[in-house]
Design brief:
Elements (H helix, E strand, L loop, with lengths): L1 H9 L7 E5 L11 H11 L2 E5 L14 H4 L8 E5 L10 E4 L2 H10 L1 H5 L5 H16 L3 H19 L10 E7 L1 H13 L5 E3 L9 E6 L6 H17 L4
Parallel strand pairs: 1-2, 2-3
Antiparallel strand pairs: 3-4, 5-7, 6-7
Bound molecules: pyridoxal-5'-phosphate.
Pyridoxal-5'-phosphate (PLP) binds next to loops.
Length: 238
């Protein structure tokens, strides 16, 4: 936040100042400190934009994302997000903001102007996903119960998942080769988690990233935990 404030001060003479942040950061699963960001934006007359791709359908009582999580709905100027994560794994995304901005983007946004539109089937399924979440707010607490359970059980097994409040559960392994081997062995056991190494994450911070879903049953999670135990023991990690 101190660094952000320095940059806002340095931009004092600018015509427009835009703070752009992820709502939930994809590799650690940590949440942007939006209350502080919004306060700084107000103090320095900046616009706040949030890429909420990992928060839409995940954070907030009704899944509206990071702003809802912090009680800041209406105070974030621009929200961008994807239709491809909690909303069902399809393609596409959106920008939500003031009509003047969205009208402007309709005229000037390159993906809007020079790409084919979303296939109607994808738009239709994304719309159905939004309506489904609106009709089933109980999915959100279920998702968080699943994430909490999975984190706690991994820790009990001796793994070191990063602490956090989101369903992104990274298990730190250190070297890239180890993360790749772990993800391959888990896949052989029927569990799909992605191994990430440098340069996607800093050197020496390779990890497998688990992503929990409200659709995971107790049986699914226990199945995955048994596989983690088996593979982790074989690799000497636990
Ligand atoms: C923060 C963030 N924004 C956007 C994306 C990509 O979304 P899309 O595939 O819809 O471009 C990702 C990851 O895939 C992401 O982590």
């Amino acid at each position: 936040m101190a660094d952000l404030e320095e940059k806002l001060k340095a931009a004092a003479g600018s015509r427009r100042k835009l703070i752009f942040t992820d709502g939930v950061f994809s590799m650690e699963g940590d949440i942007a400190r939006l209350p502080e960001i919004v306060a700084l934006a107000k103090r320095y007359d900046a616009i706040v934009a949030v890429d909420d791709s990992h928060a839409t359908g995940v954070l907030g009582k009704t899944g509206r994302g990071t702003a809802e999580h912090f009680g800041l709905l209406g105070q974030v100027d621009i929200i961008t997000s994807t239709l491809g994560k909690a909303l069902g794994g399809a393609a596409g995304g959106f920008t939500a903001g003031p009509a003047a901005l969205t009208d402007y983007l309709t005229q000037r946004s390159r993906p809007q102007l020079f790409s084919n539109a979303l296939p109607p089937t994808v738009a239709g399924s994304a719309l159905a996903a939004v309506r489904y979440i609106e009709a089933h707010p109980e999915l959100i607490p279920r998702l968080h119960r699943n994430a909490t359970y999975f984190r706690e059980q991994l820790t009990a097994l001796g793994f070191k998942p990063l602490a956090g409040e989101t369903p992104i559960v990274p298990v730190m392994l250190g070297e890239t080769a180890k993360a790749i081997e772990m993800s391959e062995r888990l896949l052989a056991e029927g569990v799909f988690v992605t191994g990430f190494g440098y340069p996607v994450v800093p050197q020496g911070h390779a990890r497998v990233r688990c992503q929990l879903s409200a659709a995971h049953s107790q049986h699914d999670m226990d199945f995955a935990l048994r596989a983690f135990k088996k593979v982790g023991t074989r690799l000497g990690l636990i």
